[in-house]
Each structure stands twice: as structure tokens, then as C-alpha cells.
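Late entry, written up from scratch paper. The run itself happened at the end of the previous shift, but nothing got recorded in the book at the time, so transcribing now.
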Amino acid sequence: MYRNGWKPFKKLFGAQFKMTFRDKNVWFWSIFYPVLLLVIFIMIFGGSSGGSFTAKLALVEPASNTLAEDLRSGLKQIDVFEYKSETPVSREKAEEWLKDRDVDAVIVLPQSADASSLELLLNKEKQNSPSSQAIQSILNNIVLQMNSAASGAAPAFTLKTEFVSAGSEELKYTDFLLTGLIALAISQAGLFGMVSMVEMRRNGLLKRLILTPASMGLFGLGGIAVKFILSAIQIVLLTLIGVLAFGAHINMNVPAFLIVFIVGTLSFAGIGFMLAGFSKTMESYFGMANLTSFIMMFISGVFFDINVLPSYIKPLANVMPLTYFANGIRDSMVYDLGMMNATFWMNIGVMLAWGLVSVIIGSKFYNWKQP
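Output as recorded:
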């Protein structure tokens, strides 16, 4: 930054920093509220299940036999199961799909007609998710029916479940929730953090600021710097609580995480600015911000896999910016995925599109001089 701009930047940054962190609403909605959600959902919601869903599976058939053929035929009759490949594939290919999250589970059919178990492979990170529990429940019922039909009182057939991780073998569902809540906390800081733009315009402070020699560019830059500081506090606090209190494991790709963090923070700040442009009062701003946050919170894969959503809601989830922000945070903090993959750039591209479009719309509707 050029020398003559440093001093006014420090003053504008200091003013916005004080204005932001003196607001009790910022401390509650940006700091304590995400922590509260983290504690509640990890302790209670993390183990829940239920809800209608569809699951995409892959079948592995090590050897052709009558038992495997009967099971394959029966599994194809279950409506909630979809298959990435209509024919069985190798175990290596199926595990690759599972790690890349192209499928929700892999079923390894018995190797011989006298085998005593059916093998199920699931993502280790989602071992307690509703979709994983539902798949296990369905297969357990199949095994139970097979045992009931068999002669003898002792169970003759069992379900063996194995969890496959794309990252560290120590990962668990707590990490899924932690990273989702980090993304949610940062998004809410952006959505609710632009309320000062509405208040400053309402009381005339913004109009007076425009008439001063202060640069509006430096004013905006100072506000962005404050957003990054607030988001960094959220990440550190939530991560410490998740790791120290709940045993979460972090397997981070630092460069990828920093890019996702920067793009996500800017994108949601842009969405918050767009909401400020449509708002004439603080009440209307908070109403729109709350509605936007509420919708994204429950359909963007923050608390649970979006596969549990009804089919008519999934298309909406697939366009929500929080879906891609949560995926990006999770990929870089849990899966250790770097920048050399298509998923990373898909997440970045969608967030950038939301941010740019929001800023353009906000600039069109925001009245900078309205008292």
C-alpha cells in the first residue's frame, strides 16, 4: 500500500474494528452461536438418522456364485439404491469411487456360495451420518431375513462393515460437522456483517464520509480486513474446541485452505452487501439475512450429507454457495485435497460467481448518499 494511504487506512480500519467488535450482536451471532451449534450437533445430532433418501452404490463381485447372484438381484430391487455401474467392478475401482465421494457405499458380495458374511464399505468421515446408518440398517435387515430363512437357531450370515477414508484413518464424523460449522460461521459473519452499511446510510454517516477526503476504497478495504480477522477468530476458536473437547482430527492442505478461506469470506461479504443494497432498515436487513442463512444452513451439507434431502430440494442445494464453501473447507481441512483437482476449482468457481454477481447487484441497488 502506498505511503500516503497507510495512515488513513489505519484510522478507517481502527474505526471499523471498534465498531464491529463493540457490537454485542457480532459476538453472539459470529462467535458464541457457532460454538453453541458445534456443541449441540456433535453431542446430539451427530448420531441421529432417518429421513427418506437415495444412495449411490457400487457392487464388487470377487467371484461368480449363486449366493452373490441372488444378493445382487435382491439389492437391485431396493428402490432407494442407485448404482454408478450396472455391472460389478473391481474392489480397487469401487474404493477409489468411495474416496472420491462418487458413491455413498460399496457392497462386496460373497466370494463363494458358502460364505458367511456380506461386506459393506463406507466413508470413515461419514460413519455416523444419516445416510450411512440408513444403508447399514437396510443391509442388516437383508441379513436378518437371510438368517430367518436359514435352518438352525444360530445366525449363519453376518454383515461386516469397513470404513474407508480419503484422508487420515483417524478421521471421524466429528470432523465432518466441525468443518461444516466453520464454513457456516464464516458465511454468517459475511451475511450479518454488512448491517453497519445499512445503519451508516440511515443515520447519514456514510453521506458525511463521502464528503470527507477519506478514500471510500480504503474504507472498503478496512472493512474487508476486519471481516478476515473475525473469520480467523472463528476458525481458531471452533477448531480448538473441536480438537480439544471432541477429539476432531485436522488433515489440512494449507494452500488450498487459504484460497478457499479467502474466496469464501469475500463471496459471503459480497452477498451481505447485496442484502444491504435491498434493505432500507436494519429490520429488513436482518429479516433477509436470517432467511438466507436459515435456508442455506439446512440444505448445504453443513450438518448432514445432502443425500438425505428429498430429490426436489437437491437441485437447490447444488446452487447454494454454502454447499461449495463447506465442501471446500472440508476438502482442505479433512481430506487434505490440494488445488490439483476439479472439485477444488468447481468450489472456487461457484463461490466467485456468487460473490461477483452479488457485488454487481448490490452496487446497482445500494444508495450511497441516502440519509
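The first strand starts at residue 55 and ends at 60.
(Scratch paper discarded after transcription.)
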